Amino acid sequence: MRKPIIAGNWKMHKTTAQARELACGLAAELVDYKWAEVVLVPPATAIATVAGAVAGTKLAVGGQNLFWEEEGAYTGEISPGMLQELGCAYVIIGHSERRGYFHETDEDVARKARAALDHGLSPIICVGETLAQREENKVEEVIGAQVKAALAKVSPEEAAKVVIAYEPIWAIGTGRSSSAEDAQQVIGFIRRTASEVLGEKQAAELRIQYGGSVKPENIHQYMAQSDIDGALVGGASLSTQQFSSLLRAAIVEEK
Question: From the CB of residue 175, how many other CB atoms can be counted at a distance below 10 Å?
Fold first, then answer.
């Protein structure tokens, strides 16, 4: 059975002091929380602080990005080893904001995923379509290509270490969200596509999240779907009360 995983992507929010306050608040609120694996993903400047704040708890920490080289003349970049040293267990790769604003390609995503795995980090690989692509009925074409490219450098034995996050770009930060049924349909397609690359058994072990305006009010609908194993949460992860409420609302007794 796949363990649900819910990650809070803080994006470019929270100073170090604010990050410490939020991490400590969540650690206190979630001391008895066992249903899902919870990952806090602060900005790079606050990773060490957050990792220290949640040390000894069940909360994990992730990075929002990495570069695929171990070191070198790459001003402004962060290596996999640096993230691991700070206490990260996960790293988000290929978020639509990285693909859009910073022009990351499918090949970049594949190289980053490989680098993460080589350094003991679990990649949370983001895929998603634009509104125009959805309206042109190109969802499976676009998502299928992204998934196959992202997993191209992943071995079948590593499938259980990988998380895929389906985030329709038109739903990120817009207040709009895919219906649970539509998300299930696309995520089921992602799992079938992954089976072509990794094998059926390995794809069955792959955890796949939904992301895009996920809130305490709608999380349960997504988690009740058979192929949805968690959520990549944006704005609702920036508040102790909202994120802890979302995590408790996500609980599904049986799937």
Answer: 9
